[in-house]
Each structure stands twice: as C-alpha cells, then as structure tokens.
Specification:
heterotrimer, A alpha/beta, B alpha/beta, C alpha/beta, A: alpha/beta, Rossmann fold, 2 domains, four-stranded parallel β-sheet, 51% helix, 12% strand, globular, B: alpha/beta, four-stranded mixed β-sheet, 12 strands
Chain lengths: 251, 234, 473
C-alpha cells in the first residue's frame, strides 16, 4: 500500500522520534511510505481556538499536498489531527462555500487514518513484531476515542507486544486536561484534571504512559516530569517500533 | 407589534434556510432509516412475561407489589389494609363495588371530598388505565375507578389495582394506549414507585410529597390463571 | 447577565475543597448509574437518533408548531400568552397572579423562571414565590442559586443542609443530618403551603402541539401538588420545548429519565390538556417565552442547543464541571450545555468565556440523549466570538489574535515554517533549561510552566531527519 505520512506540525518540530517510529513500523510491514514535504499544519489549533477563518488556507494546503491520486492512505500518529481532518474538514469546507474544496475534502477525508486505527482496522494487523519489556499503561486520548472511535485497536496492538506488562489505567476515559489552548486559557482546571490523571497513572505502577497523541503526552509527560515521578511518556508508535535490537529501528 | 407577532416573525426569519416542502415533524412511521429505528411494537408480547417484568420492575422502586386472582382480591386488599392499619379507605367514583373489602369503612369521593379530608386520609384505593412492564410504571388517566388527581396524591398510602390485561410492554405501547384519554383532555399521571428525592448528596429518600407508600396488586381474571402459568413454567 | 469570566470563577471554585468533594461523589455516583440504566436498553442509540430527529424537525418548523399548540391549548380551555423577553414574561405572570388577588404562590422547580429571575420580579410586585422542590427550597432558604440543572443543591452536603433547616424551618431545632429526616421536615413544612395555595407557577418539560398537552417530569411530588391543588396554574415555557406530536413522548419519556436520574422512569410525570372540570385548576395559563431563543435559532450550527431536554447528563460527565461546579459558569445553565446555550441566549453579550470552558473531550456529546454535538457548537461559538472581535479588549487577546494570524501565515508557507523551526528550536532548547524562569513568565507560557515541564526540543526536526535519510544511499 502506498502511504503518505501526515506527521503534524507538533510531531515534526518537537517529537521527530514518533514520526521515525511510525515510518519504521509501516516499512517493517512492507509498505512504501512517502513524506510530502509541502505539509505543515492541519489547522487544528486555529479551528479549536476560534480562528477557523485563518485555517481555510491550511485546509486548502492539506488537500493539495495529500490529495495525490498515487496515495492509498494518509496515516498520522495523532488522533486529534486525524480527527480534525476526518470530522471537522467537511464542515469547514462547507462553511467556506467552496465547492471544489468541499469535493476534494469529501474524497480525501475518509482516506486519512490515525496510526493504530490504520494498522488494526485497515491492515488487519495486531502483531507488529514489537518487543518492549516494560510496565506500560495506556491513556485513550479523547479525540481518538470519541471522534475517531478507534475503540480497542491500540490495546490490541499493545497486547501483542512481547515482554510488555500492560496495566489497565483506572478512569481511563477521563480527559487528561490538555485540550489545546484550554491548558493555558483555563490553566487551573487543566492542572486539576492533570493531577487526577497523573494520580491514576502512578497508581498503576507503570514506568511508561502511552497514548496516540503527542500533544496529550506532552501535557501528561510535562506534569510527570515536573513531579520527578520517574514515569515517562512514550507515543504508541515508539513502543510498537521497538524490537529486540533495541529502540525504534531506524531503517 | 404584539409579542406574538414579534416572536413568530423572529422565528420565521431565523428559519430562512429551511426548505418550504420539508416535513414539519418526524416520526418512525415515515422514516425507515435504521439509524433511528428504535424498537416499537415489536417486543415480546407474552403476557406472562410482561406481568413478571412489571412485578419485578415496579417492585424495584420500593413499591410493594403482589399478584392475585380475582377471587382472592378482596382478601388481599383486606390484608394490605390490616398491615397498614387503615381505618378508612378512600375510593373514587366508578370503582367496582365487588372489589371493596366488606369489613372496612369506605368513603367515596362523590361528591368530592375536601382537600383537608384527603390530607388526613389513611389510604386511597384506585385502579389504573395502563401499566408499563419495561419501566414498572402505572398510569392513571382520570377514567372510571381512578378518580381525580388530588385523591391519589394526598393520602399517605396509595393502593393500586392493576388488571393484568392492562399491562403493556414498553413506553411506546403505553403512550399509544393513552392517546384516547389525551384526546378527551383527561389529565394523566405516570407513577413509578413512591415519591422520591435525591437532592441531598444524591441519596435516595422515598416519600417526599406524594403518598409515602405504594401498594400494587396485579390481578388476573380468575381460575385458570393463564397469566402466571408460563412464567412459572419458565 | 454579569460576565466575570469562567477562568477566574473556576480558580475560586477549585480551591473549595468541600465543593470538590461533594461534586466528585455526586457526579461519579450518577455517572455509573446512568451507564447501567442505558446499558439495559438495546435500542438506545436508535432512540437517541430518533430524539435528535424529533427535536430537529420541531425546531425547523417552530412557528407552525407553536401556532398549533396555541390553538390546541385554547380549545382545551387554557389561555396562551406570548413573551418576547424576560421582562414581558415576568409582567404577564405578575399580572395574572395579581388578578387572582393572591400574594403568595407555590412554584415547581423551573430553570426557566430562574433564567428570567421571576421570583425577584414577583417580589417587586409584592408577591412571594415559595419554591417547593427540595433542592430549590434549600437554595431559597440559603439565598443561594442553583449549581446543577437536575440537582440544584449538589454543592451542599447533608451537614450544611441540616444546619440550614434547623435555622429556618419551624420546629426543626433537633433535626438530624440524615437525608431522610431532612426530607421529612421539608414534607411537613410544605404540605401546609400546598393545601393553602390558590396559585401555582410551573415550568414545562414538554408541550405537545397537536393536543395542547403540557408535561412536567419530576420525582418528589411537589409538582403534582402544584399542578393539581391550586385554582390557577401558570406555566412558563421556553418556545423550544414544543414537540409536534403526542407520539414524540414515547421517545422522550425513554430518553429523559435514564439520562437524567438514571432511572427507568422518574417517579411522577404529569400530563394535562387545558382545564379538566372537577379535576385540578380551573384556570390554566401558558406563557411562551422567546427570551433569546430565536438568536440561537438563527445560527444553523448553534440551533441544536435548543434541542436540549435538560437531563443534565452532560454536566455529570464533564471533567470541567466535575471540578468547578455550576456556579463558576455564572449562568443558570451550567456545564457543557450552558456553555453553548448561555452565549446564544444573550446574543453573545453574556457568557463569552464559556465556550472556552471545555477541553473539547467530547464526553458530553457521547451521553447527550438527543445527540447535541456540543464540542462542534463550542468551536463554532469560539469562532463567532473571535470574529466578532468581542474578546478583543484585553492585551492577551490582542496578542493571541496576532499570534494566531502569524502562525497561520507561517503554516501556509512551508519555507517560512522551516525557517521558524530553524530559528525557534535553538531558542526553545535554551529556554527549557530555565524552567523556573519560564514558570514566572506572564501569559500562556507561564501558565503552562506552572505545573508542567516543557519537552526538551530535539536536535533535528522530523523533516531534517527524513531529508538526511533520503540523501543517504
């Protein structure tokens, strides 16, 4: 399958290892991965913060960059960015009143996938040949769970990781309190939500907390690190890319 | 401009996007989309099952529920009244005289009793229009033997006789059965257990303003007992 | 409506440990119960979709249904009044009460009458309104306002309520804090009031256009008392509560109790059609209030906020509401539904910070019995408020506008984006070494840094890595 990687601006700039891991997994499964260099940001921050008007140009860019006929699927290691394209793009294109954009979005959006959803739902793969001998707990991030409805795909993948000690996270479905600009616009509520999420994570005795979104992990991981808790955050892709050889295999 | 014209005008201008030929109401009967196809009129209609379910669910509201056959109804009622030390039983007009306990003082709401009298009443006995198995709900529609609303509201104990053939499976069937009463502009009261509040720390407390106790007696016609047979077999 | 701002009010609420404790217990209890009540219904998702369609059609043809309702109520012996705004509604109700010669009325819990501040308006006309719902009574006695749609005194615990009753209710000097005893005291106190009152004021959960039937869904029986015993009943209802057909009740009466109190059915539902000789009030008045609802109706995305049936399931699952409680919203409609309803009812003049009082986690949409897509409406309203420039006066808002515009301009030009990465990353690498300094910064960076470290920026971006990989044979 010809796959285009949608790395997201956050992943490109701050979490390149997540992108590298995504490439490693897909290539290990025998798929050709392309990285359209013209990609920047899907516009989620703008849309969610009330600047949808500013995001129209980003929508057009996204559709132009990824709307290539030679691509079977666009895969992203971000639940919220994939949800942005799949769920909000059609509405935004409608509001922009541009028929061409509307059609382009309608044809592209269903081909945009979050990584775990793509692996399990589209490729039918659960065992990606990963080895990760650590105690891990999984936080189901909101947009992947409630908008994309990825269900237990991430857990199916994790359960097949050799050596892993997977711990169930209590109150898993509760939001971690990130919410994009919510984290700074309602910093006090966000911090209260983060505190409860960290307490749940620490209660599992896990050494690693994983999720499908680098943004949520940045928030959770930032809190865990501030507390010197000894628990780190790692994107699901990085766990799945780990092998006996150690670390994400950089092809 | 009157407020009426003002409000209607605002509504009409707000709805400029709505096509003129769009149906103004939605109903399951006109829209076959499976996404909205909630179960309606397709539930198990085995009466024995319905009766059992009603007894179970009504009982879960901490109403006292029991069943009996017509010939033992009077004895069952007498026992209930004894258990609650009822001195006088208030009864609505149109209540079947044969069903009244013979040794008990009966006071009929005909002509209508004062609210002060109702307020100090020990107990009221009524029938019901419909009962809904799925939710354990009893519906009074002001029909014969059910009385006006105040009668079944003020006394401390409400004894309801539910004829087994009045039990329907679910809420849709219940609403169907009540359509005639609504057309005749009779007021309806749906009762699901005794009154309750969860206003203090979400702790459920029963018996706030309505009758504090609800006794429900499901009655099958007689003899053969076709209504419970299947349930007991099962 | 005062707009003190959610973030500031939330900060105060978060510091109230008793409130946090009460809310946590209450919301988690009802959440678990709701899950069980819903799991029992095999066609729950289809019912939700049916509920959504019923409300959507009702709103899209609201004028027709209201006229049908008006005619049906009048045929059944009731009188219908129209009120464009709160002032008009209050005047109508006060005039109707004054015409009976009564100075005291009993009230069934109604959020709408809180919205229009009816009790205050009546007091100004020398009329005393007695709240009869237990929680509303608690709030009225303590001079407090509701903090939850369904359980308005959810912020109070039994000890606080016990203290209140011992102070205010007659013969309650040695009352215990047991909820049973407290409810019993309220019963005794209110019973005399019910028997003596000749006028009642209520809200309505539904009104059926085709039959003119009005419905009140309740638990305690105070509704039945108010709807049955007085001579005159005045019902004030938002225009959005109309349902086209009687059969619509078969859907709503399944969705509402399970979503709201997590019961198969609430203890009492009263449905009445005009006036019934020999049973209940001899005069029935229905007041139909716009009060800003047509503002919401005008917004094709925001319109769905009017579908709300006031079950409060969205409050109970909301992680923000769970921690701040209802008062922080500064609105009679708190929680996620309040965050989309209040700004629209006030034409974006009030509750302007409310659309941001959400992490957009979507738990509200997931439980909404009529499938209101609250997160999408929140985002949409954020856009309207930003576009209207109404959030502009503060320095930080201006900085945000500029920042967002600059970011969009950057993201539209890949060369500029790459340049920003190249310049920004080294700066960021230096910054994170001084996290204490960061936490002390004003604005968003400081608020982030108050409780979280920033991630260490990488040595190279993904795209740099990719280019290097492609260049390596």
């Amino acid at each position: 399958m010809r796959i285009a990687l949608f790395i997201t601006c956050l992943g490109d700039t701050l979490f390149p290892r997540t992108g590298q891991a995504t490439v490693a997994i897909l290539e290990r499964l025998g798929h050709a991965v392309r990285f359209p260099a013209g990609q920047t940001c899907c516009g989620q921050m703008h849309v969610n913060s009330g600047y949808a008007a500013q995001a129209t140009g980003l929508l057009e860019r996204f559709v132009r960059v990824f709307g290539d006929d030679g691509v079977d699927a666009v895969v992203s290691p971000s639940g919220s960015c994939a949800a942005m394209v799949r769920h909000h793009y059609p509405r935004l294109a409608e509001e922009a009143g541009d028929a061409g954009l509307r059609e382009a979005v309608a044809s592209l959006a269903p081909r945009v996938f979050e990584l775990s959803d793509f692996l399990v739902g589209e490729l039918g793969v659960e065992d990606v040949g990963a080895y990760f001998p650590h105690r891990v707990t999984y936080h189901p991030s909101c947009h992947a769970t409630r908008v994309l409805q990825v269900g237990d795909a991430p857990l199916r993948l994790l359960r097949r990781v050799r050596g892993i000690d997977l711990q169930e996270l209590p109150e898993a479905a509760a939001c971690c309190g990130f919410g994009g600009t919510f984290a700074v616009k309602n910093a006090d509520v966000s911090a209260a939500m983060l505190t409860d999420k960290m307490e749940a994570i620490l209660g599992t005795g896990a050494e690693v907390c994983t999720a499908l979104d680098s943004s949520c992990l940045m928030h959770i991981g930032g809190g865990l690190q501030r507390q010197r808790s000894g628990v780190r955050t790692l994107h699901l892709a990085e766990i799945l890319a780990s092998t006996d050889a150690g670390g994400p295999a950089h092809a | 401009m009157s407020d009426r014209a003002l409000v209607l005008g605002r509504i009409r201008s707000a709805l400029a996007d709505v096509p003129a030929d769009e149906p103004s109401a939605w109903s399951w009967a006109e829209d076959p989309d499976p996404a909205a196809a909630y179960r309606r009129g397709r539930r198990d209609e085995d009466r024995a099952v319905l009766v059992e379910r009603f007894l179970e669910r009504c009982g879960e509201y901490s109403a006292t529920v029991q069943r009996c056959e017509e010939p033992s109804l009077v004895a069952a009622l007498t026992a209930i009244c004894e258990r609650h030390a009822v001195r006088t039983l208030l009864v609505p007009p149109g209540f079947d005289e044969h069903r009244l306990p013979p040794d008990l003082a009966i006071e009929r709401d005909d002509p209508p009793l004062s609210v002060e009298r109702l307020d100090i009443g020990d107990a009221v006995l009524t029938g019901c229009a419909v009962a809904i198995a799925e939710t354990g709900t009893i519906v009074l529609d002001g029909g014969p033997g059910q009385g006006r609303r105040a009668l079944s509201l003020l006394p401390d104990l409400h004894v309801v006789i539910v004829d087994a053939d009045r039990i329907v499976s679910g809420v849709p069937e219940g609403v169907d059965a009540l359509a005639a009463a609504v057309t005749e502009r009779r007021p309806l009261t749906l009762i699901s257990g005794p009154s309750a509040t969860s206003d203090i720390e979400l702790t459920r407390v029963e018996g706030v303003h309505g009758p504090r106790r609800l006794e429900v007696l499901v009655v099958a016609p007689s003899g053969e007992d076709p209504y419970w047979a299947a349930a007991e077999r099962g | 409506m005062p707009d003190t701002g959610f973030p500031a009010a939330a900060r105060t609420a978060l510091a109230d440990t008793q409130l946090r404790r009460n809310l946590h217990v209450a919301t988690h209890t009802i959440r678990d119960k709701r899950l069980r009540a819903v799991a029992e219904v095999p066609d729950w998702e289809e019912l939700r979709e049916a509920g959504r369609r019923i409300k959507q059609h009702a709103m899209r043809h609201l004028d027709e249904h209201l006229e049908t309702l008006e005619a049906a109520v009048q045929r059944a012996g009731g009188t219908v009044h129209w009120a464009a705004d709160a002032t008009a509604a209050n005047r109508i109700v006060a005039d109707l009460i004054a015409a009976t010669g009564e100075r005291e009325v009993v009230k069934v819990k109604s959020i709408l009458t809180d919205e229009i501040r009816l009790n205050d308006a009546l007091r100004a006309r020398g009329i005393t309104a007695h709240e009869t719902d237990l929680a509303e009574l608690i709030n009225q006695l303590s001079g407090d306002t509701a903090s939850h749609i369904l359980v308005p005194a959810i912020h109070r615990n039994r000890a606080e309520i016990g203290e209140l009753f011992r102070r205010h209710l007659p013969d309650a000097g040695d009352l215990s804090d047991d909820p049973r005893a407290l409810a019993g005291a309220a019963r005794a106190y209110l019973r005399d009031l019910f028997l003596a009152s000749r006028v009642a004021v209520s809200g309505a959960n539904f009104a059926i256009a085709e039959t003119g039937t009005v419905g009140v869904v309740e638990s305690e029986g105070n509704g039945r008392m108010c709807l049955t015993l007085p001579d005159t009943l005045i019902t004030v209802m938002g225009i959005e509560k109309v349902l086209p057909r009687l059969a619509d009740l078969e859907v709503m009466l399944q969705l509402l109790p399970r979503s709201s109190t997590a019961e198969r059915m609430n203890p009492y539902t009263s449905l009445w059609t005009g006036v019934t000789p020999g049973d209940g009030p001899r005069a029935f008045h229905l007041v139909l209030l716009d009060g800003g609802r047509t503002n919401a109706l005008r917004d094709t995305t925001g319109r769905q906020a009017l579908h709300c049936i006031r079950c409060s399931a969205c409050l109970n699952v909301c992680p923000v509401y769970e921690r701040t409680g209802g008062h922080a919203y500064g609105s009679v409609y708190p929680g996620p539904i309040g965050a989309i309803l209040t700004p629209q009812l006030t034409d974006l003049h009030g509750g302007r910070t409310l659309p941001w009082a959400s992490s957009l986690c979507g738990a509200c949409y997931e439980v909404c019995p009529v499938k209101i897509d609250i997160p999408t409406v929140l985002i949409h309203l954020r856009g309207r408020i930003v576009a209207g420039g109404q959030a502009a006066p503060r320095m930080e808002d201006r900085a945000e506008h500029a920042g967002m515009r600059a970011a969009a301009a950057t993201f539209r030009r890949p060369w500029l984006y790459r340049l920003a990465q190249r310049v920004g990353l080294p700066v960021a690498r230096r910054l994170v070494r001084h996290e204490r300094l960061m936490a002390a910064l004003p604005g968003p960076l400081g608020r982030w840094g108050a409780v979280r470290d920033l991630p260490a920026p990488p040595a190279e971006t993904f795209r740099d890595w990719w280019r290097g990989r492609e260049e390596t044979p």
